[in-house]
Amino acid sequence: MIKWFDFTPILGWSVSRYDKFNLCKRQYYYDYYAKYDKVYPIQKIKALKKLTSIPLEMGNIVHQVVKVLLERLLKSEEAIDESQFIDFAKRKTQEHCNSKTFSEVYYKEINRVDAEVLFGEIHHALNNFLSSKRYDWLTEKAISNKLNWIIEPSRFGETRLEGMKIYCKVDFLFPVNDYIYIIDWKTGKRDEEKYKKQLLGYTCWASYHLEKDPNKIIPTIAYLRPSYEEVHMKFNEYDIQDFAIQIKEETEEMYSWCRNIEENIPQDKDKFIKTTNNKICNYCNYRELCR
Ligand code: SF4
Questions:
Q1: What is the pLDDT of residue 117?
Q2: Residues 6+ apart with CB under 8 A from 43
């Protein structure tokens, strides 16, 4: 059973938080400490934080649609009507394009996001999944234990690793025989090193909440495009110990940018220096504030 934790303000490690911390300290500050900024109103920073991008939104839509598909399988094991499903994905794409502000448009790189073009990519990713052996296996074998499926649990995937607060939100977890399978859907480009950390995090999450031996957990990255492809990794207790050492170092590094660690109050903004790497800035939501 998933365990719940009382709220504590202390920061929690996650792959994305530490990535941001490494990428640009100023971006990290805007993402996590906007309320302490004395120069820009919090609403402005939050509005910029909310900007999406074409690759990001493609991932969001695919995740949402696959989640609905899996939840539909929970309700009924009947084969899905693929054309209706694709139609639903098309409507979702249109809705997202109408309701979201894309950074590419906001920063005038393009005039508008063409929902048809975006849907073309999404359709391709969904077709790859529906025609994969994994989908057949899910609907023919794994479904027999569907009452124990966990599909995108709420609460951001909070867990504990040797007492440290960490966040690792799984997309889809399901038991088959004596094993727990975890699948993380990807629509972007490959980054094996980053994903290894993510998969280690999922293993910790499942091991903690479901009290399962890491050897019996099979975390998988499923690339949905350009073709369906999976990367599996398996970890043991030594990998988890090693991971805990790494997370402790990374967490302490982030703590060192806090004036008050327990309350998660940051040092002065000046300490969060701007990157000098223009390539990072070119894709950053906060360009308007920095330039
Ligand atoms: S625009 Fe550049 S310097 Fe400013 S927050 Fe973004 S990445 Fe950092």
A1: 95
A2: none
